[in-house]
Write a structure and sequence with these properties.
By secondary structure, the chain is α+β, with helices and mostly antiparallel strands. The chain has helices at residues 13-26, 40-69, 86-101, 109-135, 137-144, 187-199, 230-250, and strands spanning 153-163, 167-174, 177-182, 204-205, 209-212, 216-220, 260-263, 266-269. It contains 7 helices and 8 strands, in the order αααααβββαβββαββ.
Length: 291
């Protein structure tokens, strides 16, 4: 077995070694009904997102192996990995991969376990996400794209941190436009959209939302729109004040600049799972257990 030709631009020989194992796992997705919907760029997005996590797990150990291999030619590398030059990393990367294949280097069992866990979680998540997007494509398209049903996925971009066994919010670009996939219940997003639309449409923009019970939801992709002119700017600051008062009344949390932004003279609110937040009055803790 020899080192395969990789599309990765990496100095991590462990990453090239595990890349082949990831490809074996991703073959499971190729038999799914949604797979023809994926463009080549979207398939590559999946591989690169998973391998980025593997790089985080294996990178430091790989450089320590390089330092050991360089102990005669570059003894300073043993004192500080920063002394390994870029040329040395490029030269040793395929060497380490081949040594792993030949079992001349045995990766730590905990590393292998962590990488396998990343692979399992990722394949399970992408399978569920893409299956949901395919299964509910007509309903989602009716809501977000005026009934123009998407037939292809051009890109998949992670947004935010990974939680709960590898799940994450993803920005999906389809042939009909972008949407946001959320691996959580989006019932609050659906209800908040209708509430804000009815009572605060003059100051707040809410994304349309599609929810399937507790499993997942799809949210309209909103973009920032700068207010132009004094009248629009004044309207924005009026909306900012009104929205601040409303969010304070609701007890909302997590309303930082990534979740609240300007949208053509109004304020857009996204990622609102903490729109309603419980408040316990000081001193009421003693009442617990009294009923």
């Amino acid at each position: 077995m020899s080192v395969k030709n990789s599309v990765l631009d990496t100095e991590n020989g462990f990453l090239l070694y595990f890349e082949a194992k990831l490809d074996e796992g991703l073959e499971q997705l190729q038999t799914a009904e949604y797979y023809p919907m994926l463009d080549d760029a979207a398939k590559q997005d999946i591989r690169e997102a998973v391998l980025a996590k593997v790089d985080h797990i294996t990178g430091s150990y790989c450089y320590s192996v390089m330092a050991d291999l360089l102990k005669d030619d570059n003894p300073l590398a043993g004192y500080d990995l920063k002394f390994i030059t870029k040329a040395e990393k490029k030269r040793l990367c395929p060497v380490i991969t081949q040594k792993l294949i030949n079992r001349e280097i045995i990766p730590p069992s905990r590393m292998v376990s962590n990488v396998e866990k990343v692979f399992d979680n990722a394949i399970h998540f992408y399978d569920r996400m893409l299956g949901n997007l395919y299964r509910y494509r007509k309903e989602i398209s009716n809501l977000l794209f005026d009934g123009r049903v998407y037939t292809s996925v051009a890109s998949i971009e992670g947004s935010g941190d990974t939680h709960n066994h590898g799940k994450f919010t993803a920005i999906i670009e389809t042939d009909q436009g972008k949407l946001v996939y959320k691996p959580r219940s989006c019932e609050i997003d659906v209800q908040a959209y209708h509430f804000m639309k009815k009572y605060f449409d003059d100051i707040i923009v809410m994304p349309k939302a599609f929810a399937v019970e507790q499993e997942f939801g799809v949210i309209e992709f909103l973009t920032k729109k700068i207010s132009e002119g004094e009248e629009a700017a004044a309207g924005y600051y009026y909306a900012l004040g009104g929205t601040t008062a409303l969010l304070k009344t609701l007890g909302s949390k997590d309303m930082h600049l990534e979740n609240l932004f300007a949208c053509d003279g109004r304020l857009a609110l996204i990622d609102i799972e903490t729109l309603l937040y419980p408040y316990v009055r000081p001193g009421t803790e003693r009442l617990r257990g009294s009923f």
